[in-house]
Write a structure and sequence with these properties.
- The chain is an alpha/beta fold.
- It folds into 2 domains: about 230 residues, Rossmann fold (3-Layer(aba) Sandwich), CATH 3.40.50.2300; about 130 residues, Response regulator (Rossmann fold).
- It has 12 helices and 15 strands.
- Helix 3 packs parallel to helix 4 and helix 5 packs across helix 6.
- The longest helix has 22 residues.
């Protein structure tokens, strides 16, 4: 009988130790597209999170506590993103949520986080209006409104562009927002548009639009697309003999372009981002080397942004005394985040507060400087 009591005591002690270990974990939700067309972004994003967490935990974590990511696949779909946010926030009771991958999904799911007073931190959402949802919505991905005018201006200066054709996806929040911002920037730069053509998500044949574009003799093609359509568009353009440069948005800034548009098909794509693999700052050099060592491949913008986002959140968490009261801890993190400044793989970073449609203070966008790159022979090369 005594032996049974001792065994029970050992079991209880072990269970208590396990509970204590779990209590020392800081649970953070990750809602990313790990399947479907947007997975080409989602897997890079997840890798960036995992690399940062492994480094942070190996260095002692946050005030002795370890990061524990709870990862869910939102498949790049609005309904799935909503369901994943609900699970992470209400069932898994995470402290905050990173994601989702696409702006479409963020517009659908972020109101769940705002209503639950839980930080939603986007690392790849760049469409207008995401952070106007509310004061618990953050992102470190620079908006298309900030980047596209710079990309166009540099391309105009370098290429001597006098007129362009525009091609964009008309059924996605991100690609429509990109089109709107391209349209404004073209107007501001006084660059005429020869024709504006559209496509839908899931389309595979773009030859009709490209043939129309070809007939108008532009100097470049402005493209607002996700990579699933953007890569094939570049391939089909080259097949039609169109050797014009493409000027793309955030969705085209991925090494996946070299897979989807192999060889010369991917040449002369101009994009803007705070990150470039060729940026030789100490922080970026360290990140690129660590990423290659861990994953056996080169990182992209999306991995760099999630990597930096983890470090940004950690800087805020270091200033928060976690009480164990989840509601209070979520609010304390929200209150600590806006003051964070960080220099990482994507360069110097700070938050700037956005406003609601009614003009009231809302969530927080990224303030960073864009780097303009062009694809040449399977690489992104910085243009200065």
């Amino acid at each position: 009988m005594q032996g049974i009591r001792n065994l029970l005591l050992v079991s209880l002690v072990a269970a208590g130790s396990l509970t204590a270990a779990q209590a020392a974990d800081i649970k953070i939700g990750v809602a990313e597209a790990l399947s479907g067309p947007a997975a080409q972004y989602g897997h890079s994003i997840e890798n960036g999170f995992q690399l940062a967490a492994s480094e942070i935990n190996a260095a002692g974590g946050i005030n002795g506590n370890k990061i524990k990511f709870v990862v869910e696949d939102e498949q790049g779909k609005k309904d799935d993103a909503i369901n994943v946010f609900k699970k992470l926030i209400f069932q898994d009771k995470v402290l905050m949520v990173f994601g989702p991958t696409l702006s479409n999904s963020a517009q659908a799911a972020d109101p769940i986080a705002q209503g639950a007073k839980t930080v939603a931190f986007g690392t790849s959402n760049t469409a207008d209006g995401i952070t106007s949802i509310g004061n618990y919505i953050f992102r470190n991905s620079v908006t298309e409104a900030d980047v596209l005018p710079v990309t166009l201006s540099v391309a105009q200066r370098k290429l001597g562009i006098k007129k362009v054709a525009v091609l964009y996806g008309n059924d996605d929040v991100f690609t429509v927002s990109g089109y709107d911002n391209f349209k404004k920037a073209l107007s501001d730069l006084k660059i005429p548009v020869t024709t504006t053509e559209t496509f839908a998500k899931g389309d595979v044949d773009f030859k009709a639009q490209l043939t129309k574009i070809q007939s108008t003799h532009p100097d470049a093609i402005v493209l607002s697309a996700l990579m699933a359509e953007g890569g094939p568009i570049m391939v089909q353009a080259r097949q039609l003999g169109i050797k014009l440069p493409f000027i793309g948005g955030n969705g085209m800034n991925s090494v996946k372009v070299f897979t989807l548009a192999p060889g010369a098909a991917s040449n002369d794509l101009w994009v803007g981002s705070p990150w470039s693999i060729d940026n030789d700052t100490p922080e970026n050099t360290k990140f690129v080397a660590a990423y290659k060592a861990k994953f056996g491949a080169a990182p992209d913008q999306f991995a760099a942004q999630s990597y930096d986002a983890t470090h940004i959140a950690v800087q805020a968490l270091k200033k928060v005394k976690l009480s164990g009261n989840l509601a209070a801890d979520r609010t304390a993190l929200r209150d600590a985040l806006p003051a964070v400044k960080w220099t990482g793989a994507t360069g110097a970073f700070e938050f700037v507060q956005s406003k609601t449609k009614a003009g009231k203070p809302a969530g927080y966008d990224a303030k960073q400087t864009a780097i303009i790159s062009v694809t040449r022979n399977g690489k992104y090369v910085i243009e200065k």
